[in-house]
Amino acid sequence: MLPTMPARMMSPTFVGRRLERARLESALARAADGEPSVVLVGGDAGIGKSRLLTEFLASQRDAVVLSGGCLDLGEAALPYAPVVEAFRGLTGELGEDRVRALLTGPRRELARLLPRTEVDPTPHAGDPASQSRLFEAVLSALETLGQRSPVIVAIEDLHWADRSTLDLVVFLARNLGRGRVLVVATYRADEVHRRHSLSPVLAELSRQPSVERLDLAPFERDELVEQLEAILGRAPDPDLVDVIAERSEGNAFYAEELLAATERSGGPLPSTLRDILASRLAPLPESAKEVLRIAAAAARTVDHRLLEEVAQLPAAELRDGLREAVAHQVLVPTEDGRSYRFRHALLQEAVHGELLPGERSDLHAGFAEALTRDPSLAAGGADAVHAELAYHWYAAHELDRAFAASLVAAETAMGQYASAEARHHYELALELWDRVSEDARAAAHPRWEVLRRAAHAALVGGDSRRALAHQRAAIAAARDVVPPEISAGLLAKLSQLLWIAGEGEEAMTLSEASLAAMPDTPSRDRAFALAWRGRLLMLSGRYEEALAPSREGVDVARAVGASLEESQALNSLGTSLANDHDLEAGVALLRESLEIARRVGGVEDVLRAYINLGHVLAAAGARGAGSVPIADSRRWDEAIAVSEEGLRWAEDTGIVGPMVDFLRLNLVDDLHFLGRWDEADRQIELVRFRPDAGAAGAHVALSVGRVRIAQGRFEEARACLSGHGVLGEGSVDLHFLIPIAEAEAALALWEGRPEHARRVADRAMEHADRLEWMDLLVPLAAWAEADIAIDARAQGDTAGVEEAEQRMDHLQEVLQAALAETDPDAMWSERLRGVLHQVEAERMRLAGQAQPEAWQRAVAWLDEYGHAGVAEYARWRLAEALLARGDRDEAAGVLGEAHRRAAELGAGAVRERLEALARRARVDLAGVDAAGDAALGLTPREREVLELVAEGLTNRAIGERLFIAEKTVSVHVSNILPKLGVSNRGEAAAVAHRLGLDAG
After folding, report:
1. Phi/psi of residue 37, each to 5°?
2. DSSP alpha helices (H): ranges in 796-851?
3. β-strand 301-303 against 339-342: which pairing, if any?
4. How does 482-516 read in b/e, with b if 16+ C-beta sit within 10 Å?
5. Domain count within the chain
6. How many angstroms separate the CA atoms of 250 and 253, rounded?
7. Which of 865, 895, 926 represents a domain boundary (last residue)?
8. Do the domain assignments include residue 353?
9. 543-560 and 563-579 helices cross at what angle (nearest 10)?
10. Residues 434, 220: Cα–Cα separation, whole Å
11. Does residue 124 contact residue 133 with C-beta atoms inside 8 Å?
């Protein structure tokens, strides 16, 4: 007879872990108060992670609990397996009606993981923003659920998680915001080696302020005694405690199994874990062992119906075997009553490890056949069955079937926004390509097409290097077996991937080569190649060159009905025309591109149209369009309206992700330029990217950093720009290189580091071969040279002064040469003349000459055309020059006006300098007349114009007084009248007198 078994092998009471339990309770309390967090519970196998989590969850009566576990299917893991399990459990807790109500708007994307909800997801799978939309849907669902009760998301065995689940956990850690959500995830610390997929994720999560690590230590002796006493129902023998403590090393599961082995045999304890588990299983009847062998091949959890299908045992025999396995606490029924799971993964691994090779293959084949007959038995549901089929057929050495299942699983994963898993399945199929039969290959896509799809999956997943490798392999595999247009199309796609990877020069070369190899016959591939060539040239700032391929791309796309390619070519054509001084035509084409993209559902192309349309309108506002100066704010209003419209479209459509952030950052940049920094701050709070989020984070770093510099929040600006600096020399994309260099140089100058600013400007200006960038870099370079010369002169460094003088002379020569090459009537000439005013003023400062007139010219121009706040820098320098010349009263007026404007803007950087200068000059800024503040929302320049209107000056006279064009004055007056609610100049003058704005 078998020895009598104890009634239980697990402690009926929860032993120890009081501190860990308290930390979980504290994290939940913070989440309930709107401070969400992620707790990572780590420890060796058997240490008690699952028990801690189970006890914690069982005690939460007022929280919504969503729990799911990861499956040990290797790299063929089911996409989002724990998320699917967690949300399916939600249906039972809330009911189908509430779940359907939850899946509305952007949250419809969750239907991709919950197909039984009868809710259709949005039809945008496969684009690079698709996974972000799903993540936003999960986040929104959790935040919505949290409005009623705190939400706990519990994920077990994160070390087995698929790549997409890991990405989701990182996303939640970064973006939970104020949601009442607690995420708790367990993982085996002893399995996470340096090259494990979880290792970099843990490192990334550890950097997030919302993440807390909870590492479980082995039991102390007193805790072990408490555990053994609870199991035995009596105090354990001290000698037994000594032996178990030594062998188990405080591991709770090992201690339980050692105790069970002692109770069973009464003899010496097993010496290894394998022996411990073998002795645990040995007393089981054969019926139970057979059931366990079958269940072990299914992984840790198995559906009862699936077990029946595979076992093919008489019902009574299966029932008896299950009963014994449960009675001996090897299997445990799940809460839903439909499945069984091994009490501990170590038990499943032990049983699976004892299977004979042929036996293991037969069992995996049995599971695959059962799932083929009834896909609904799959752990992830019928829609996810092919991932499990690929796993089981591969383990059964049925390579043809594994190959076919992997290809279908890849397509399914792409539809679920799980590009990493899709890429794995494509790669498995490619690995099997030469090992499967000719019939299997014939039934699949050609090898080059599988490689192309693998490249696309890698691209969508953000792995540009792997995408490049697969695309190159696709080109090699397609050589001599596909028509020329397909081969050339693959080259064009490789060019695009190279650009994304930062290999701009090679991308440009290949885009040209792809067109040369492409037949002239109209085709979709030719339309794509032309559209991409135009876009590449446009992105490189080569607008005139971009026109021809973009125009041809439009024609070819229309000829073959390729609407998406037509939209792409129109986008590049419109952007290039707008930047090549035909703004109205460019804007019209961009609006046409937008309309087509919205009609055909090209998500990225819709967003790209909004982004580029807003950008060219803002650029027109910044530099003026034709004879219309910046003071006519119509272009700025249009730019802001376009960005806001695009953001509303994205929200209404459920679109999220990097490109939505780029669109929002366009809006931030516009608001920054106009000095509406509080509004910019509100938009910044809605940006999902963070400045450390790779290359895309450069855009965030730039937009946020600029605002923080202007506000004088230098430490925050430095944190934003850290790690970005000026971009690498391998890129030909000037869009980030020059503006980030501008921000980095400006920060260095405000912080008193002109040498660093000089180096930054030098590096960046090597790439500035277009006029557009001169107004950003040259004024800062001049500021740096003036500061360096002043410091050098103070130290008696004659050589340093001479070098700065020579460099300043070079800046003036560069500007004068650019002016000579530019149409005198073009707006760019006016802009370059303004930059020259600034450089000439800095030249006087460098030489130690008090020349207020030079700074007055710079102030007049900056008021008209400069970024908000920049004119206050020039007023600071103007006040310095006036004081140096002895014009104290005029300097006090300039200081007071500049300080008032800086305070209105929140321009902390320049305000501090103005206050310091006022203290040194003993100027009382508090006495500045602030009556003009009541002037009904007038800009500083409009206030000046109104003062002169009140004096009775004509537009021409006002222009001469303020150094601006007569037509510009007319525009100012046209803006002033409706703001004051008057209809003519006389009424405006009366209002000015009433407000005390008249000069008299």
Report:
1. -155, 170
2. 798-820, 827-846
3. antiparallel
4. beebbbbbbbbbbbbbbbbbebbeebbebbbbbbe
5. 4
6. 9
7. 926
8. no
9. 160
10. 55
11. yes
Per the domain annotation, does 404 fall within a domain?
no
Indicate if 868 and 938 belong to the same structural domain. Answer: no
pLDDT tens across 268-297, in order?
A: 555 666 777 777 777 788 888 899 999 988
Q: Are residues 209 and 235 in the same domain?
A: no
- Tens digits of per-residue pLDDT, 291-332? 999 998 886 678 899 998 898 888 889 999 999 888 887 888
Coil, strand, or helix at residue 937? coil
Alpha-carbon span 268 to 243, nearest angstrom: 10
In the chain, what's the furthest Cα-to-Cα distance? Answer: 117
Q: With 70 as the cut, is the pLDDT of residue 462 above it?
A: yes
Give me the residues paired with residue 37 across strands.
182
Secondary structure (3-state) at 552: helix
130/64 same-domain check = yes
Pick the residue with more confidence: 781 or 238?
Answer: 781
The helix (run of H) or strand (run of E) holding residue 130 is: helix 130-145
Kindly state whether residues 109 and 191 are assigned to the same domain. yes
Structure tokens at 698: 């450069």
Cα–Cα distance for residue pair 724/693, rounded to 1 Å: 11
Q: How far is CA 278 from the centre of its chain?
A: 48
Q: Is 183 helix (H, G, I), strand (E, B) or coil?
A: strand
Q: Tell me, what's the pLDDT at 406?
A: 95
Q: Which residue has the higher pLDDT, 243 or 93?
A: 243
State how beta strands 301-303 and 331-333 pair.
Answer: unpaired
Domain end position, chosen among 266, 281, 299: 266
Structure tokens at 765: 């200006």
Strand pairing class (151-156; 64-69): parallel
CA distance 80 to 88: 12
We report the CATH number of the domain holding residue 59 as 3.40.50.300
- Please indicate, yes or no, whether residues 875 and 983 belong to a single structural domain of this protein: no
Q: Other C-beta atoms within 10 Å of 973: how many?
A: 18
Question: Under DSSP, is residue 790 helix (H, G, I), strand (E, B) or coil?
Answer: helix
Whether 835 maps to a domain, the answer reads no
Whether 26 and 123 map to the same domain: the answer is yes
Range of the domain at 976: 929-1000
Q: Taking a C-beta distance cutoff of 8 angstroms, is the pair 931, 900 a contact? A: no
Shared-domain flag, residues 873 and 990:
no
For residue range 608-657, list pLDDT tens digits in order.
Answer: 999 999 999 987 776 554 333 444 457 888 999 999 999 999 887 767 67
Angstrom distance (rounded) from CA 330 to CA 290: 13
Same domain, 101 and 204: yes
